[in-house]
Design a protein that fits this description.
The protein has 20 helices and 18 strands. By secondary structure, it is α/β, with parallel strands linked by helices. It folds into 3 domains: about 130 residues, Rossmann fold, CATH 3.40.50; about 160 residues, Alpha-Beta Plaits (2-Layer Sandwich), CATH 3.30.70; about 220 residues, EAL domain (TIM Barrel). It has an 8-stranded mixed β-barrel, surrounded by 4 helices. Strands 2-1-3-4-5 form a 5-stranded parallel sheet, with helices on both faces. Helix 4 links the parallel strand 4 and strand 5. Helix 1 packs across helix 5, helix 8 runs antiparallel to helix 9 and helix 12 packs across helix 13. The two termini are about 50 Å apart.
Amino acid sequence: MSESILLTDSDDPAIPAAALLLDRWRADQRDHADLAAVIGEPGVRAMLVVTRDPVELRASIEAAHARGLPVIVGCGDEKARRRAVELRAEEWFLLPATPEEIAARVWSALARAASTGAAAAERADKTELENMLHDSLTGLPTLPVVIERSRALFKKRGELVVLYLNFVRYSKIEEIYGWEKLDAVLETTASAVRDFLDDDDLRESRLMVSYSNDDDFIFFHVPASGVAAATDGEITEMVTRLQRHVAAQIETAHGEDIAALFDIYVGRAHLYYNPKVRLERLIYRGIREAQNASRSLEQRERARRVNDLKTAIRDRGVYVDYHPIVVASTREIFGYEALARGTLRTLRSPEVMFDVAAEADLIWELSRLCRERALEGMNTRLEEGQLLFLNVDPHDFADPAFSESEVAEPSRVVIEITERTAIKDYPKFRERLKAFREKGFRFAVDDAGSGYAGLGSIANLEPDFIKLDISLITAIDTNFIKQNLVQTMVRFANDHGAMVIAEGVERAEEFKMVQDLGVHLVQGFFLHRPQSASSPIVKSVVVP
């Protein structure tokens, strides 16, 4: 009988000892990044991983399951255990563990992977039930659980306050950065909200999600005996403090750009117990009332933002951060992308600012202001040979005020086609680009691999630069499909005289990987944070 291999990314001596307890097994320890490459080797029968990185863990489990291999996860804490359950690992154990326990988990994982028919269906039903009761991502209970836990208190007190926490721009985080980033932000959010409630007068509130992996939260507040329910004013004051607390935690964990997309609207419903009405229906109606109230607040806030934007356009209330674009091989500054931001906090995020402009039909006015601000810094920002990358939406080319004569030195400007809207008439659009090219402008397709900016745009626009979307670069060092896609894009660019820019590089491993794949230019917080127009000019970036 041939030897069986337990593939692992851990150097824990308990794992080889556990393999010795199995029949003709041995442990094969590899760097985590190498696991996927050796999964298909002869003799590999199971994989044991201990990585704490959620993206790496998901990629490893998916690669193993694609090969029919069971996965055992060594978990450092309860959050890691929940993640292992969510990702459908066959087994998990808490670290540290004895060789005997690890060996038992391996046998159990093999048995689970081999189960068929009724046993597999029973296991699927059990997993489904677990997901219905608790959210594996945040650890929060779901609505049915909290209703049961609150039933007796609601009846005894006779009233219940329902608050619906609507995180309105979390979908934007997922759209820009991918689901892995939003999952991480939701974990931070849940932890921050729990910490806040522990120190607040509403500490007895029960926090939950309405559905597993949802991005809105609900909490029930049953006032303590002899204490009046929180008033609208008290709720408003509490929400203000909650927003500051959660935003600070998100900025610390995920950076200012993510925190700028954090917004919370809280709707409130005050319920009174009625024995004639089924309690569950009473609560569901209250949740819908609170949810609708939060949306009403959101609409009022949108109207306020439109007024803020009109004021910003009138007062030229936009500033520009200049984000260095670095030559991957030499780490010298190749150019700068001009990132426009509102001076008002409500409009700090460019995504928010342009969303509001689209709603108010002020896209052209805002785009003109952003271009003016960006071009003002050319002489102080750029050295000889450096380029300014200027974001322009296809919609802007229809603006009569935007022409190829707008820029004094077009040879120093790269127009990034930022496709917030689809290009519907490519022949007509190419004619507009031709006039700009003849003046000396160069072009880049922004966010390639995301939204409208697909292969069709690259083929039709024939760009000088191809900017790869952050979703392709995040965790590229552990994702072989992303590596193959980027390598193909680099090869295409080389064949057609273009250059590839990897944006959103935040880790040393990502930087090393895009270098190895031949990416020409790199942009991201790992190399340098954006610089305001008043910051000193940086000639090169020293990578830590």
